[in-house]
Amino acid sequence: MKFDLHTHHARCGHARGELRDYVEAAISAGLDILGFSDHSPFFAEAADHHKPGVAMAKSDFPGYLAEAAALREEYRGRIRILIGVESDFFPEHVGLYRRIYEGIDLDYVIGSVHVMGGTDIFDLRRWENASPEFLLEEKEKYCELIADSARSGMFDILGHIDALRGNCPEIGSIKTAAVDRMLRVIAESDTVVEVNTSGGTKACGGWYPQPDVLERAAYFGVKITFGSDAHVPERIAEDHELVRKRLREIGYREWYVFEGRERRSLPL
Ligand SMILES: [Zn+2]
Ligand SMILES: [Zn+2]
């Protein structure tokens, strides 16, 4: 079974191509299952379109769901389409987001931390003249936020759990017990983590989580899924087979997809 649960499209303002382009690319790539998971709106903000270029407008969300559902019907029999979102995790707005996601018909919700301390984690200015102490502090804070996102119980999948190193690769080599603590919480909360192959679109390269963190995740029994995080149709399912092989090497025998927010295992 070939699948990709993490994909975007033009509505978020920083991806190229319409939903249909991703469906066609997925069929060309031989996928059995394609999950849509565009950036959900900033529900807690007053403005309809809080950050154009980052996530879709609130008023655009119903159109996203309707178009995705129509494509699911149109392509039935050729590819199975799942409808999800990639949601920001804002600890202060957990109640609001949870209510919204429970009130709509989604297959899954990916929870990701893109903003910490009010700044985008990929913002290069964040890392200018950063001391080793600062990097350690930031890394530990990020791990704690990811652990909180798992504890919230509102997400089916956690997105790119070490993306903090995306544009600051040296963060990856900083040792801290916070990483194991985070993985233990994720395992206990029974939340699935994605292997996200979009590291190559940032300075760090490779995949999230980085190799040693992925091995520790296996050690703690963290469940796994796959997402390319494609923002262009050409990246759909990127490295799917390599990820599958790597996961088998480190002991995984199954991975997971979601339908109607129910988890289903697939053999690796
Ligand atoms: Zn994006
Ligand atoms: Zn993301």
From TrEMBL:
Its EC number is 3.1.3.15. It is an enzyme of class 3 (hydrolase). Residues 3-91 form the Polymerase/histidinol phosphatase N-terminal domain. CDD domains: PHP_HisPPase_Hisj_like (cd12110). The keyword Amino-acid biosynthesis applies. Pathway: Amino-acid biosynthesis; L-histidine biosynthesis; L-histidine from 5-phospho-alpha-D-ribose 1-diphosphate: step 8/9. GO terms for cellular component: cytoplasm. It catalyses: L-histidinol phosphate + H2O = L-histidinol + phosphate. It comes from the Bacteria. Belongs to the PHP hydrolase family. HisK subfamily. NCBIfam families: hisJ_fam (TIGR01856), PRK07328.1 (NF005596). This is Histidinol-phosphatase. It comes from Streptomyces spongiae.
